[in-house]
Structures are given as structure tokens and as C-alpha cells.
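Following up on my earlier thread - several people asked me to post the actual chain instead of describing it. Fair enough. Here it is, all 138 residues.
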Amino acid sequence: MKTFPVLSNTTAAYLAGLFDGEGSVSIIARRTWGLRVSIYSAADDGFLRAIYNECGQPGCFVRVKRKRYRPLFNWEMKGPALKWFLTSVEPWLRLKKTHAGIALDMYTLLEGHRKGKSLRISPHEQATRKLLQLALEY
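Reply from S.P.:
Thanks for posting it. Predicted structure:
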């Protein structure tokens, strides 16, 4: 299991500001449920890649090609990396503090059900997932 570094208060606060401005939380509700945190940069990949490397490379770093536009750089986290990131930056978040809390609640719900496994979930848990998904949209 991958271990993640303990961030200094300065780094965590900086990441929180970056996430507040350029980040997003997504709940994927298809055949199986999933959760994703992304930070985007349309400038260049230098500063975002440097932070990604400094944090021990949690998640993945992707360059998205776009026709007629400059490329977009995306740092995406799922699973334990998502939990580490959100718990590290949550005290410093301003705009997305509620979203981070909802995402951590959803992560706790999903933790017991591994992706790809066809485990039945109760109607109560299904309703809870839907409510968290709706809360994240607003």
C-alpha cells in the first residue's frame, strides 16, 4: 500500500487554495460508483507537476490535448490518494469545504465496496449515495 507524505501547513494551505480555485470533486454513478478529485491547469505543467512530485505523485498526472486550444493539465486522484488529499487540505479550504466533507463521507461509504465487485447494497445505502451525489451538485 502506498504511503503519502505529511504535508507542511504551508504546502497544505497552498494546495487548498489551488483546489478551491482550480479543482473539482466528481461522483461517478454508472454501473459502479466512483469518486474523483481533480485539479486543472491551463497554463503549463511546470508548477502543477512540481507540486505533484513534491507530494509523492499521488494519483495520476495527465496532459489533455484539445483542438484549437492549448493543452490542459490534470492531476487526478482516486481511492486512498483522494482521502489523503482531502483530509490534508480540508482545514484550509474555503469555497469547497462542504464538497470535501461530502466527498469524504462518500469515500467512507464506498470504501467497503470495491470497484468491479457486484456486491448488493441496501436500499438505504443506495438512497444515501444518491443524496450525497445530489448534495455535491449544489
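Strands lie at 23-29, 33-41, 60-64, 72-77. That should answer part of your original question.
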